[in-house]
């Protein structure tokens, strides 16, 4: 059990039978009435974000999340097959569980699987990945007054806004949290 007074960003807790990670929290002590903690929580099972208010000092269950390194092997229809790097066990996750992550997954990529008491909740990607540009328009000379950008499609199908000097075949470093261009690799 953990007190809501000890909330930290990234902490995983169990509330009403669901597993949540704390995105934001704020301790509020009004002039009149009891103190409370206002929080924004993300459900790890379905990805929904909820706002909850707890009384100060209230205790809730702490969820011990396990992270293991796994390799992404291949896609088979709607299923995506992963292999545990220690035990070599293979398992699959549905496309619905990996909607955002599929924009960055390549075969043989190492990611962390997130599980709670044997239930697989999803995967954690590295903060940035290298992806190759497969389609983009050529940059037009003289069109660079103030940091102009153009659209580029990378090998996973993600569309990213990039500077005009990026060409097809370039390998880019892409931020997996926001899906934005960082630099050339």
From TrEMBL:
Keywords per UniProt: Cytoplasm, Elongation factor, Protein biosynthesis
Record's subcellular location: Cytoplasm
Record InterPro entries: Elong-fact-P_C, NA-bd_OB-fold, Rib_uL2_dom2, Transl_elong_fac_P/YeiP, Transl_elong_KOW-like, Transl_elong_P/YeiP_cen, Transl_elong_P/YeiP_CS, Transl_elongation_fac_P
A Pfam family the protein falls into: EFP
Keyword rRNA processing: no
UniProt domain Elongation factor P C-terminal: residue ranges: 129-184
Tree of life domain: Bacteria
Molecular function as annotated in GO: translation elongation factor activity
Limits of the Translation elongation factor P/YeiP central domain: 67-121
UniProt pathway annotation: Protein biosynthesis; polypeptide chain elongation
Function: Involved in peptide bond synthesis. Stimulates efficient translation and peptide-bond synthesis on native or reconstituted 70S ribosomes in vitro. Probably functions indirectly by altering the affinity of the ribosome for aminoacyl-tRNA, thus increasing their reactivity as acceptors for peptidyl transferase.
Family, as annotated: Belongs to the elongation factor P family.
Name of the molecule in the record: Elongation factor P
Source organism of the structure: Paenibacillus cookii
């Amino acid at each position: 059990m953990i007190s809501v007074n000890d909330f930290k960003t990234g902490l995983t807790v169990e509330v009403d039978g669901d597993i949540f990670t704390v995105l934001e929290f704020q301790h509020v002590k009004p002039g009149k009435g009891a103190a409370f903690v206002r929080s924004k929580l993300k459900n790890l099972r379905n990805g929904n974000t909820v706002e909850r208010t707890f009384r100060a000092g209230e205790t809730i269950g702490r969820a011990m999340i396990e992270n293991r390194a796994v390799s992404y092997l291949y896609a088979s229809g709607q299923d995506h097959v992963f292999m545990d790097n220690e035990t070599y066990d293979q398992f699959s996750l549905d496309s619905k569980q990996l909607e955002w992550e599929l924009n960055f997954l390549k075969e043989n990529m190492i990611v962390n699987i997130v599980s709670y008491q044997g239930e697989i909740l999803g995967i954690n990607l590295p903060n940035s990945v290298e992806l190759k540009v497969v389609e983009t328009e050529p940059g037009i000379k003289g069109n660079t007054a103030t940091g102009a950008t153009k659209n580029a499609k990378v090998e996973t199908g993600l569309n990213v806004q990039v500077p005009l000097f990026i060409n097809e075949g370039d390998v880019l470093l892409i931020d997996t949290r926001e899906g934005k261009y960082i630099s050339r690799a």
